[in-house]
Design goal:
Layout (H helix, E strand, L loop, with lengths): L2 E4 L9 H13 L7 H5 L6 H12 L5 H18 L8 H10 L4 E5 L3 H10 L8 E4 L11 H10 L6 E5 L2 H9 L3 E5 L14 E3 L12
Helix pairs in contact: 1-4, 3-4, 4-6
Length: 213
Amino acid sequence: MQAFIFDMDGVIIDSEPIHNKVVKEVLLENNIVVDDEEFNKLIGMTSTSVFSYFIDKHHLPYTPEEMTNNHMNFFKKYIVDHNLKPIDGICPLLEQLQKANIPLAIASSSPLNVIEFVVKTFNIDKYFKFLISGEDILHSKPAPDIYLKTAKKLQVNPKDCVVLEDSKNGSIAAKDAGMYCIGFANPNSGNQDLSRADIIIKQISDINITQLP
């Protein structure tokens, strides 16, 4: 292992229930009801891609950018108002990786300003060498593009990178990039198929960095 790459939503912050709630409320205002099964298939994709999906499917009178901006403004306010903290085990893991001199990055489907907001609010920005947003990449997860770009920025061969993911789309992206993937079975991320991951954990503290390839 020469680098460790984190997804953010559902891995660093337990945000999937918040995202789901906001999107469902917006759609409900337009008389659209989405069941969890359909929504869970979209986890790991960029917000713009998710909103584009619903706009196209239901012919909504908005742009993906308008819906994404409104969504993310609510999301940042929610983090502050509810004093959210990192998922249990994340801070100790960051400390262990830093002490082992492993370069770290975030490769998230969220917009860059939201990634920056989360890591600064949680006071963990000092750990990460790069913050990469899927909004700046042509193909969203499950395409491997974001992970290949992150490896290139880190100047590390993809096969020497370890990724921590909580979604089917994210784990597919990591594996198709040629990386070792740890699947985090976060119950708040829905019933995700993590079968492509190399190992599956139920809590972050289960990660032993000395046993990673």
